[in-house]
């Protein structure tokens, strides 16, 4: 047999049409599987974000409560200190005010030069 005869008339008759149909069917199922997987991943991500958001919200509420309590304790301590030493508190506040005023005046005059 020569080469041209072999190409023109194959020795085995294959049913390529049915094989292509099977491959198309497999590809359609695979496409459906990918679509389903995409929806499931999106749904799972949404659920995870919801749980994380709830967790973060709870954590923020707890930390906020702790900070409010600490602030309240600090305020009470400052008020108690002022009540214990009212004259020293007034002198300290006045000194701080004078120091800040002098600093502001110095920076303002220094900027003009």
TrEMBL record:
Q: What are the TM regions of this chain, as residue ranges?
A: 87-106
This protein's source sits in the domain of life called Bacteria
What is the protein name stated in its UniProt record?
ElaB/YqjD/DUF883 family membrane-anchored ribosome-binding protein
| Alphabetical keyword list | Membrane, Transmembrane, Transmembrane helix
